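User: Here's a chain of 138 residues. Predict its fold as tokens.
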Amino acid sequence: MTPAEALWQADERLAMAARQGRYPIYHQLRISASALVSLDSFYLGFRQGEGQIVYPYNWDGEEYDDPNVNTFAPDGLTAWIIARKKTYASWTDGGALLHRGRAFGDTARRSAVAIATPLRDGKEVVGVLSVLSYTANA
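Assistant: Prediction complete.
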């Protein structure tokens, strides 16, 4: 499937998922992302106050983690995305920022590559969406 076909399909499926509620949307975001990039883990989090993030959707391998709330480190990835309002790609710094914060997924392994992007409401960053892989150059 070409990237253009994957995006067209994602648009259709996300529109259908939107009629079913937020969790079908989160699930479809992961499925759509996996059509574009190789991923082992996926998470979606929304800011709660100044130092916390609620993760309603966490997926690693074939397992879903329960929704949870975490305090994020002031020098970690989430704080970086909120402050800079831009996407982070782990290959830009060898994963240094990625591994500075709280571990996600299989904590016995470190993610080799990741892309994390801000979720916005206008100019305000309201959350973070991230795709990760345990395989280098994925």
